Amino acid sequence: MDLLGAILTYHSLDESGSVISVRPEVFARQLAALAGAGVKVVPLTELRAAPGPAVALTFDDGFENIARAAPVLARHRFPATVFLVTDYCGKQNDWPGQWAGAPRLPLMAWSRIRELSAAGIEFGAHTATHPDLTRLDVSPAREEMLSSKRCIEDATGRPVRSFAYPYGAMSAATRALVGEHFQAGCS
Q1: What is the Cα–Cα distance from 46 to 53, expressed in whole angstroms?
Q2: Pairing relation of β-strands 81-84 and 184-186?
Q3: pTM above the 0.85 mark?
Q4: DSSP 3-state assignment of 185?
């Protein structure tokens, strides 16, 4: 089987050693390795249509420390998508349901999001409050998705074309909702 595309998903760039963390210098080496190998890195929404093998880079949750990635991405001219939990922007990742071992870290404020958007980082929706959408009825699940989408579009002035399922949890109903409102969904 040939590899047509892959998504490299990150969360936090920090020194904590958490399972959701990558040290910034390791991240920089990984991107240098991709560039050195001539790997084609494309925007997430273009991955399926990319001619030949390609990779998309994404970051879940919108941690403030992702700003460290911007100069590395720019150096290699790599696009990336950051998925935001919009009701927590400018706060910490302490939403209900967060696993006990997760490091509590600051999330990007709207001023940082606008700055990175202007620099070419794409932002995607990751819901308003990070619930497990498979435990919600269709109407509240839709509102979680669309509220997040609207907030990002209002803040950046750019369309939100992609969505990441909190906890990777999805169902036929949530996939259908994502299909109605986004070009790409990640789990």
Answers
A1: 12
A2: unpaired
A3: yes
A4: strand
Query: What are the b/e assignments for 56-83, b being 16+ CB within 10 Å?
Result: bbbbbbbbbbbbebbebbeeeebbbbbb
Instruction: Name residue, tokens 């999330």.
Output: 107
Size (the chain), residues: 187
| Cα pseudo-dihedral 156, 157, 159, 164, rounded to 10 | 20
Model pLDDT, residue 15: 94
Assign 99 a pLDDT band (cuts: 50, 70, 90): confident
Q: Tell me how far apart the alpha carbons of residues 43 and 48 are, in angstroms, rounded to a whole number.
A: 10
Distance CA 102, CA 140 (A): 26
For residues 121 and 143, the answer to whether their CB atoms sit within 8 Å is: no
**pLDDT, tens digit, 9 for 90 and up, residues 19-76:** 999 999 999 999 999 999 999 999 999 999 998 889 999 999 999 999 999 999 999 9
The DSSP-derived string for 124-163 is: EE--SS---GGGS-HHHHHHHHHHHHHHHHHHHSS---EE
